[in-house]
Amino acid sequence: MARKLENKTIDYKSNLNWSSETELVGLVFEFVTLADVSIYPQYTIGLHAWFLDQVRSYDPELSAYLHDGESEKPFTISALDGELVSSGRQVQLCANNSYYWYVTVLSSRVSQWMEKWVQNLPKELNLRNASLQIRSCNIAHDPTTYAQLLNSEHGETVTLKFLSPTSFRRKGHHFPLPMPTNVFHSYLRRWNDFSGMSVDQEAFLAWVDDNVLIIRHQLTSMKVLAGKKGAVTGFTGTIEFGLTKEASKQPDFCKLFYALGKLAPYCGTGHKTTFGLGQTRLGWSSQAAPEVPDVQSLLAKRIEELTDIFKAQRKRTGGDRAEEIASKWATILARREMGESLQLVAQDLEMPYETVKTYVKLARRALKPG
Hints:
Blueprint: E1 24-32, E2 37-39, H1 44-58, H2 60-68, E3 75-77, E4 84-87, E5 90-93, E6 99-105, H3 108-117, E7 124-127, E8 130-144, H4 146-151, E9 158-166, E10 168-170, E11 173-175, H5 180-194, H6 201-211, E12 212-225, E13 231-243, H7 251-267, E14 280-282, H8 294-313, H9 319-337, H10 342-349, H11 353-367
Antiparallel strand pairs: 1-6, 1-8, 2-5, 3-6, 4-5, 7-8, 9-13, 9-14, 10-11, 12-13
Helix pairs in contact: 1-2, 5-6, 5-7, 8-9, 9-11, 10-11
Domain CRISPR-associated protein Cas6-like N-terminal: 35-139
GO biological process, one term: defense response to virus
Protein name: CRISPR-associated endoribonuclease Cas6
């Protein structure tokens, strides 16, 4: 729940220093709005764009890499944490309530940029016409390195909380279950890309499949918006992983297992972690994850419904291209049905306006009987 603000000024630049050796760090921003404001359901696209624009203003080359790089993304962002309510076709933020936003980085290059950036933060973040004042900025996940994660102390099990809907890609479909191989594959991809201590993926995942046990779990699933296009079924909740007795025969993999668990809060879990999905923390919690505002759930369901229709119509062509077009048509049409202008949709999706206009016409035509 949101917390009411006190009438005081917070120095958001205090205690925001870390060494040049740092590879991983997480920040939490506190926002406040001076009046009730409404934001569009897929506002995490705007948060994503704002962050990249901040990088671009300081380091255009780094921004291009974060935007277009073919490797794993070396950052994550969360959705807003606070009192979010549906208001017609939009999501409302209440005046004088606090809203929290988490940003993590996973490489020394981005960490060094962020350390400079936080010394001169802007006063506000704009989501289209909604102004969010930056009230404070603090360290949420301690500055560290991959080597420190690997060599730090650990317990007998790895317990993870999935705070925002989490999903994986499996055989071309979304897979909303935290199976050990999916979870640790997700972390290993980031580890191999950024740690400088690459591990044989096939061998490690075979070991995970044979030796990592689910001790207990408490999970629920929901449909959510997925970044720039489409919707996914994701899960939230808590899970505890343990190891078999035979696991100790490969001590290096045991050590990596615990290190990857500690990496989870920094890198998130699954896909679309740069658009708010897969936010992960350590420890067990029986507390339910924050509910997704109804307008976001309705839009996610409509996008999925339209995607299924368009995919079925394009069944003959098949392939990834057909699926991608179906998803784009569905996203554009559903957002237009929610009252968004095609100009803003085109801007969000980084597509030419004329292309978006053509796609919405084709999508509407495809829905007509006969």
